[in-house]
Amino acid sequence: MTAVLQWAALVMCLGCTLWRLPALFRGRNRGVFWAFFLISMCVALSIPAIYLPVDVLLGGVNFANVVLRLGLFTAVFLLAAKIAAAYNAPKARAFIRGPLGLAVLIACSAGILITYLLSDLSGSSPGLAGFGDQPSVIAYTVIGRLYAGFAAACLIAPTGQAAFSRLPALDRAAALSMCLGFAGICLALVAQATPWRLSSIMGLLSFGSILFVATGLALVWVSYLRGPQKQ
User: Fold this and answer.
1) Domain contains 155
2) Residue-wise DSSP of 82-116
3) Full-model pTM
4) Which range of residues forms the domain containing residue 139?
5) Among residues of the chain, what percentage have pLDDT more than 70?
6) Domain membership flag for residue 118
7) Predicted confidence band at 231 (pLDDT cuts at 50, 70, 90)?
8) Which residues of 66-82 are buried (b: 16+ CB within 10 A; e: fewer)?
């Protein structure tokens, strides 16, 4: 089931990346394109068939996982503030792009690099599944979800309010889909600190959340195309 969700999330994210290409060439919302590009890369690197050959090229020491984590941080930074602005949530945007959000981003990025260097990670292992008994790896995986969890927590209220507002049905469906995705990201962060971190629940939460968020953003675009002003 997790493998199906991984590939489904990859296809969805690649589709969203291609969907943003025309806007990229016109110089509009380039950050959204690069966010989807990075998310596609991260989802691809979560799939063993892609991760293993890539990591071998990088030395076989699981540096591909570091690329995945830092790429995800960058994607969240690019995308989360735009979503907050779209839902008229200045406080959420200030949390994400303000001093607190930047401090969380820098601390998590440094934490990833430090715990990676403290770990013995010889031999490629997707998701670092083969090294889960090392305290530094446990810390690494929690830190790897922390920034996304922080940004997602900031966006649950704005998208949830929009989902139950008087907006058109398609816009409410988009907001609800994103709200469910952000809630799933937060649940995955909590589950990472429990024995459930070793179960398939983590995969379902992680990739299910990506699918919900990507679907919500796609619905926003469909709603925009159906409006009076079209790109």
Assistant:
1) yes
2) HHHHHTT-HHHHHHHHSHHHHHHHHHHHHHHHHHH
3) 0.89
4) 2-226
5) 96
6) yes
7) very low
8) bbbbbbbbbbbbbbbbb
In a domain, residue 83? The reply is yes
How far is 25 from 153, CA to CA, in rounded Å? Answer: 32
Q: Is residue 231 part of a domain?
A: no
Q: What is the CATH number of the domain that holds 17?
A: 1.20.1070
Number of domains in the chain: 1
CA distances from 227 to 21, 166, 170 (A): 20, 16, 11
Q: How many alpha carbons fall within 13 Å on the CB side of residue 198?
A: 8
DSSP assignment, residue 159?
H
What torsion, rounded to 10 degrees, do the Cα atoms 179, 146, 40, 118 define?
Answer: -170
Residue (of 190, 187, 155, 188) closest to 174 by Cα position: 155
Q: What is the pLDDT of residues 4-30, one digit of tens each?
A: 889 999 999 999 899 888 878 888 878
Q: What are the b/e assignments for 199-216, b being 16+ CB within 10 Å?
A: eeebbbbbbbbbbbbbbb
Per-residue model confidence as pLDDT tens digits over 57-68: 999 999 999 999
